[in-house]
């Protein structure tokens, strides 16, 4: 079954085309990205498996034209991997916010579109772009099933004490203010795959997944189900991130707004785009650059990276207590997959639980599946590269088959 996975941002479309025989037998046919939609120098980079890369700069005014570029690249005589659009069996869309409407992936219909639209308030940067993406794809491939996979769905198993904020209850009733979490597709994928990799029975396991990238979150997974997660009503809560502040005392928000004469929109921008690594260092939001600065003796860069380790440690420690122990800690996403020192420093903070971390082996691995603890370690620690697209492709395949 040929599945096209689409991840639409406000000015970009990322895509992967997979040939799915079943959940575990699949091949990547092509992947790529359309960037700077709406700008004069928009471009597409298309990477077909086993063929040369195609790069093209052309005006792409909107997502509908962007989707047409994606489809044209897939059937291009030189760089294409399909003979016609008709070869695509289903399209899976990544959706950032599904609130408490969706606890799993669904076939897109008008009711689903309305609910994704309702959730725009909770993810104003992402959901409107997802809607554009689905509408554009429906216009070019009207008879192909479209499936929506939600970043929030995996977290829907949390119970009220974990998802409620201690605000007046009416805000939950009137405005649906509660913890929804994010990165759910990634946490679900790595917890399942990690259990398999570590030889654990997922249905009888306590796993903590650390998705540490430009956006970061930590999730507690008991018996394969999310029991708690660090991101909240929006992906702003939790630990320090590239440009997001993570959890802060809420009183700081009105205080700074008054002092700096900021509107709610401006304050939201400060907390989402000007804080985190960037705000604290004053120099960069990128972990690679931050490591270079630390190596050159920059004290603030060192403090930022120490805070990163501290924030993860506090979240993991809290979730260990919440689950009454932990069998497996998993690292994933750009920062954790590529920075051995981070995995080492966090893991060594859990020596008290009996973690025996294999530092020498850890130093040799990057972006591959690896067990980072010695066989006699009481708690296992693993590196599991995330694969959200594969999760979306699997769900899309199952839903398309059910609805055939
Ligand atoms: P993500 O959001 O998962 O793509 O992760 C992005 C973050 O991963 C950025 O802060 C990058 O600096 C970091 N990262 C990606 N590749 C590397 C690398 N090779 N070495 C160090 N950090 C990396």
Précis, in short:
The chain contains 15 helices and 14 strands. By secondary structure, the protein is α/β, with parallel strands linked by helices. The strands form 2 sheets. An 8-stranded mixed beta sheet has the order 5-4-3-2-1-6-8-7, sandwiched between helices.
What topology does this entry show?
Layout: E1 2-8, E2 13-22, E3 25-35, E4 43-48, E5 54-57, H1 63-74, E6 90-95, E7 106-107, H2 110-118, H3 127-140, E8 146-150, H4 160-163, H5 169-175, H6 184-198, E9 206-212, E10 216-222, E11 225-229, H7 252-260, H8 264-273, H9 276-281, H10 287-295, H11 299-323, E12 328-332, H12 333-338, H13 340-348, H14 359-362, E13 370-371, E14 380-383, H15 388-402
Parallel strand pairs: 1-6, 6-8, 9-12, 12-14
Antiparallel strand pairs: 1-2, 2-3, 3-4, 4-5, 7-8, 9-10, 10-11, 13-14
Helix pairs in contact: 1-3, 10-11, 11-13
Residues 213-214, 242, 286-288, 333-335, 338-339 line the site of adenosine monophosphate.
Radius of gyration: 21 Å
What is the tally of helical segments? Answer: 15
Distance between the termini: 12 Å
Structural class of the secondary structure composition? alpha/beta
**How are helices and strands ordered from N to C?**
EEEEEHEEHHEHHHEEEHHHHHEHHHEEH
Bound molecules: adenosine monophosphate
Largest sheet: 8 strands, mixed
Biggest sheet: strand arrangement: 5-4-3-2-1-6-8-7
Beta percentage is: 15-25%
Number of strands: 14
Features:
404 residues, alpha/beta, eight-stranded mixed β-sheet, six-stranded mixed β-sheet, globular, binds adenosine monophosphate
């Amino acid at each position: 079954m040929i599945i096209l996975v689409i991840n639409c941002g406000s000015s970009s479309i990322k895509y992967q085309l997979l040939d799915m025989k079943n959940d575990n037998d699949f091949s990547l046919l092509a992947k790529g990205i359309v960037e700077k939609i709406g700008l004069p120098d928009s471009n597409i980079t298309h990477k077909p498996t086993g063929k040369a890369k195609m790069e093209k700069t052309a005006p792409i005014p909107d997502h509908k034209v962007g989707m047409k570029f994606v489809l044209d690249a897939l059937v291009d005589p030189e760089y294409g991997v399909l003979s016609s659009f008709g070869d695509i069996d289903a399209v899976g869309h990544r959706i950032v916010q599904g609130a408490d409407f969706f606890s799993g992936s669904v076939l897109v219909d008008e009711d689903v579109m309305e609910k994704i639209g309702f959730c725009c308030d909770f993810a104003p940067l992402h959901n409107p772009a997802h809607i554009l993406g689905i509408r554009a794809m429906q216009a070019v491939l009207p008879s192909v099933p479209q499936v929506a996979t939600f970043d929030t769905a995996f977290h829907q198993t949390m119970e009220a004490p974990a998802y409620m904020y201690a605000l007046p209850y009416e805000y939950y009733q009137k405005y649906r203010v509660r913890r929804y979490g994010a990165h759910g597709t990634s946490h679900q994928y790595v917890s399942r795959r990690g259990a398999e990799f570590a030889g654990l029975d997922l249905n009888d396991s306590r796993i903590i997944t650390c998705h540490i990238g430009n956006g970061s979150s930590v999730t507690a997974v008991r018996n394969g189900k999310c029991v708690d997660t660090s991101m909240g009503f929006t992906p702003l809560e939790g630990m320090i991130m590239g440009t997001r502040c993570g959890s802060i005392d809420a009183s700081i928000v009105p205080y700074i707004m008054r002092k700096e004469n900021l509107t709610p929109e401006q304050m939201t921008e400060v907390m989402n785009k000007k804080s985190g690594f960037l705000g604290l260092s004053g120099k960069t939001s990128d972990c690679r650059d931050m490591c270079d600065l630390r190596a050159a003796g920059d004290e603030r860069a060192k403090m930022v990276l120490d805070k990163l380790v501290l924030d993860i440690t506090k979240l993991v420690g809290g979730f260990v207590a919440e689950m009454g122990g932990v069998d497996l800690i998993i690292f994933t996403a750009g920062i954790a997959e590529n920075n051995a020192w981070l995995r080492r420093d966090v893991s060594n903070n859990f020596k008290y639980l009996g973690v025996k971390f294999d530092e020498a082996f850890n130093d040799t691995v990057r972006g591959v599946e690896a067990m980072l603890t010695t066989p006699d370690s009481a708690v296992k620690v693993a590196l599991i590269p995330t694969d959200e697209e594969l999760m979306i492709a699997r769900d899309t395949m199952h839903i398309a088959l059910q609805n055939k």
